Structure prediction request, 482 residues.
Amino acid sequence: MVSVADKSLFKRWPKALIALDSNDKIVQVNANACAILGWEESDLLGKPLHDSVCSHALGYLHADNACPLVKPDFFTRDSYNEYRWKLKSGDLKAVYAKGMLLHPDNTRLVVFSDQSNTNYSQKDMQRLASFAEHSPTPITEFDTQGNIEFTNPAMIELLSEIGFDENGAPEVVPTEIKELISTMLAKNAPIMGVERVVEGRTFVWDFYPIPASNGILIQAYGREITAAKLLNESLRREKETAESANKSKSHFLSVMSHELRTPMNSIIGFSRRLLGKADKDLPAQYVGALQTILSSAQNLLTMINETLDMSKIEAGKMTPIISEFSPADLAQEIKGLLTIQAEDKHLEFNIHLDQSVPDTIKSDREFLRKIIVNLVGNAIKFTEEGAIDVAIRAANEDTLLIAVKDNGIGISEADQINIFDKFTQASDEASRRYNGSGLGLALCKELTTILGGEIGLESETGVGSLFWVQVPSNGLPATTES
Prediction:
């Protein structure tokens, strides 16, 4: 039964409540229930609910064991149902009632309200009629056989536009109206979002079962969604066109990768060979020109590689290849690859490999190399004097942490927000002063994400920047692999 602690809430509950024990006997009644039924609380306590109030249900007589109030499903149904209950005076009253089970002790509650006292004031009736009369939404009411009982002016106007079929049924209403009503009555629930297409126009209807004095009415609200459907179709076609164009672009860049890279590698290779003989065979005035050719070719090749890599990522073709490799060997390779660039700007370049780093890790070596090379290359590009320091350590047994620190121009807080977006550089001044596609950091973020890691930065304008990357060191996490 309802606990003593709950009795105050039980008595003050705005609806009528009756609590039953396991034998269907009444153990508590609130004042609202007594007011509707005309009984005193003492008249009802300890008596079976059926004996006290129920003599009819839905208009027909039934035996005690057939009373819907004592059937188990009465306390598990979600909906209210109409019943006729006996008052103390012997009269019958229409009520809406449903049962509820309260856990953990499975107390059974009957919640009900007086349906015979639903008279609206004249003002209420006028307001309701005015709403339907002036509503721009087509509103109509059907009986349970699908016959129209009421239409508001908006619905009349729509019917005059669309007309009726050869059987006299309104064209704008779904043809399966009778089936819809049967389903609604069986489920005692509304049916929403039923579409009807007529004369190239699309309408959607919502149907609601409404209790009425003479039974059930079906109230229907319609709205035209033709413009919205056309817009959605247009957006779908534009999306498909854009996706197709993006795939074509990615395919073109992928196919052209060899044609673009081969001549650039040739220019870089011959420039290096000529510079190797510059002291002996070339006049001094040509050395600077060769260095410019080499630097420009390297920058252009970097842009081409970044563009092609980003294109592969967008096309979903940049798949990680997980293998076991030595972080120390990777650090040594990067050191040899970028030392010359740092020395050309008279910068120190240091890589610190912490003792916590394991001898081997499992990841995509090429992805990790691209990330570190991009970060170090940026640090060299935007630093005029000082040092570039790379620190590699184990954040934990399954995570590798890489930090690249410089004392270059730094990045403002406003620019840090979008610094990992494609085609973004720290500022317009930096974009004009330093060459680059603005794809390097975006590529680092995409590759880090594919590896299941994270990337971030700390920076201050005029002081320098620290970029950090955390990636799994024991293969891809389960979510990334899937």
Q: What stands out?
A: The first strand starts at residue 16 and ends at 20. The two ends are 51 Å apart (CA to CA).
